[in-house]
Write a structure and sequence with these properties.
Layout lengths: L14 H4 L6 E5 L5 H10 L6 E5 L5 E2 L5 E2 L6 E8 L11 H15 L5 E3 L3 E4 L2 E11 L12 E9 L15 H5 L5 H21 L1 H11 L6 E5 L5 E9 L5 E5 L6 E3 L3 E5 L11
Parallel strand pairs: 1-2
Antiparallel strand pairs: 2-5, 3-4, 5-9, 6-7, 7-8, 8-9, 10-11, 10-14, 11-12, 12-13
Helix pairs in contact: 3-5, 3-6, 5-6
C-alpha cells in the first residue's frame, strides 16, 4: 500500500474517501485525548448507530485493563465506532471478539499475516499489532431518546510506527511487517467494511462468527498461563471458546476445563516430554 511521501512520511486521512464507506458516518478530528470518550458522549446524547470517530493524534487513549495507549501523530489508527446492538445483553461479551475477527480479516486482505490472541489482541508473527476496547454506555436515566444501551468499539491499530516508537518491544506495526509505507485511509475503509460483515454475522449468524474466530485464533491449542484479575494464575491447555466468549482452559493434571472470562493470557512453550526408555 505505497503512498506518496510527505515530510513526515505520514499522510493525513482522506476525508473524501472515508465519506464513501457505506453504512458508516466517519468524522476525523485533528487531535483528541480519546476517541472512545468522544463517541461515548455521543452515545449518551442519543446519536444513532454507525457513527465513527477517528483522529490524526490520540494523546490519552485507554486500552484493556485500563492500560494507557498513546501514539505519535498519524502513526496509527485510533478509531471508535458507535453500535446499538439489537441482541440480548448476555451475548455482548462476544463484541470484542467480533471486532478482532474484523481487524484480522482486514489486515489479511491488505496482505499482512495476522491472528487473534484471546480475547482480542491482533498479533503479527507473535507481536501485538492492534488492541481493542469495547465499552457499554447506558442511556441517562432522564433520556428521552429511548435508544437504551450502546456499545463503543475502540480500535488502536499500529500503522507506521517505527521500531524506536513502539510502546513495548513486543509490539509491531504494519509498516514494520510489510516494509513499506501504509495508506491509513485504505486501512480504515477496509476495516470498516470487515466490521460491517462481522457485526452482521454476530447478530444474525453467531455460530458462523464463532467458527471464524476459532479459525483465526493463535491461542487455541496452545499451552497458556491465564493471569486472573483477582490474583493467581491458571496454567493449562487452551481448548475452546464458550458461548459467552470465555476461554476454556484445561488445567494441568485436571479433568475438567475452566472458563476464563478476563485477565491476561500468556502463550507458553509446550511442556517438555520425558523419555523414560520404556516401550
Amino acid at each position: 500500500m505505497p503512498v506518496s511521501d510527505t515530510p513526515a512520511g505520514r499522510p493525513a486521512l482522506d476525508q473524501g474517501r472515508l465519506a464513501d464507506v457505506a453504512g458508516w458516518q466517519v468524522e476525523v478530528v485533528p487531535e483528541t485525548p480519546s476517541t472512545n470518550a468522544l463517541v461515548s458522549d455521543c452515545a449518551r446524547a442519543g446519536t444513532a448507530e454507525g457513527l465513527v470517530i477517528t483522529t490524526e493524534h490520540q494523546t490519552a487513549g485507554r486500552g484493556r485493563l485500563d492500560r494507557g495507549w498513546t501514539m505519535p501523530p498519524r502513526a496509527a489508527l485510533a478509531v471508535s465506532v458507535l453500535l446499538r446492538p439489537d441482541v440480548p445483553a448476555e451475548r455482548w461479551p462476544w463484541l470484542p471478539l467480533m471486532t478482532g475477527v474484523a481487524v484480522v480479516g482486514a489486515v489479511r486482505e491488505l496482505g499482512y499475516d495476522a491472528g487473534l490472541k484471546w480475547p482480542n489482541d491482533v498479533l503479527a508473527h507473535g507481536r501485538k499489532l492492534c488492541g481493542i476496547l469495547v465499552e457499554r454506555v447506558e442511556a441517562p436515566a432522564d433520556s428521552s431518546t429511548g435508544d437504551g444501551a450502546a456499545a463503543v468499539v475502540g480500535i488502536g491499530l499500529n500503522t507506521s510506527l517505527t521500531a524506536e516508537e513502539l510502546p513495548v518491544p513486543t509490539a509491531t506495526s504494519l509498516a514494520l511487517e510489510g516494509g513499506a509505507p501504509v495508506d491509513r485511509t485504505e486501512v480504515l475503509v477496509t476495516l470498516l467494511r470487515h466490521l460491517s460483515a462481522s457485526y452482521a454475522a454476530w447478530r444474525e449468524r453467531p455460530d458462523e462468527l464463532a467458527a471464524t474466530y476459532v479459525e483465526l485464533s493463535v491461542t487455541l491449542g496452545q499451552r497458556v498461563r491465564a493471569e486472573l484479575p483477582g490474583g493467581g494464575a491458571l496454567v493449562g491447555a487452551a481448548t475452546g471458546i464458550d458461548r459467552y466468549g470465555r476461554l476454556e482452559v484445561l488445567p494441568d493434571r485436571a479433568d475438567d476445563t475452566v472458563a476464563v472470562g478476563a485477565g491476561d493470557v500468556v502463550h507458553l512453550r509446550p511442556a517438555p516430554t520425558t523419555d523414560t526408555g520404556m516401550q
